[in-house]
Design goal:
Order of helices and strands: HHEEEHEEHE
Helix content: 40-55%
Structural class: alpha+beta
Number of strands: 6
Largest sheet: 6 strands, antiparallel
Number of helices: 4
Number of domains: 1
Oligomer: single chain
Strand order of the largest sheet: 1-2-3-5-4-6
Radius of gyration: 13 Å
């Protein structure tokens, strides 16, 4: 039940945040992974599913890693990613609280975010991808 609620929070956060970020202007070339599918491949997911493409100018999608949903978003630059994280702290927490959750997890790279459902997967992904773990407390 908690995993389903966290997946719902993650999906809702992705929709709300990326809609807010989609018009962000960046400077410079994309760094890190070029696409969400590339992040999924690096994670070791076998079932990547592309999102609507409305969430980010660079792409979004999800996959399963160790039986857990991971939402992935890539951005054109670090500035766009930072805006996503900043908005997520506000909007994502409102959604999380509405679902009875006190926090959610992210792993951040130069131009991407991976959002797993658990701290254990967050730690594994941070190690695998060389990313920074962010736990958003609400």
């Amino acid at each position: 039940m908690v995993v389903r609620l966290r997946s719902r929070v993650s999906a809702t956060v992705v929709v709300l945040l990326l809609a807010s970020c989609s018009n962000a202007k960046g400077s410079g070339a994309a760094a890190g992974f070029a696409t969400p599918a590339a992040v999924a491949t690096a994670i070791g997911c076998t079932d990547f599913s592309a999102g609507s493409g409305k969430m980010s100018s660079n792409g979004d999608g999800s996959c399963t890693y160790n039986s857990e949903n991971v939402d992935i978003t890539t951005f054109t630059d670090t500035g766009q990613r930072n805006q996503y994280v900043s908005i997520g702290k506000k909007t994502g927490c409102a959604v999380a609280k509405g679902l009875g959750l006190s926090h959610f997890y992210m792993v951040e790279g130069p131009n991407w975010i991976a959002q797993p459902d658990s701290h254990t997967t967050q730690a594994a992904l941070a190690t695998k991808l060389g990313g920074k773990s962010l736990t958003i407390d609400c």
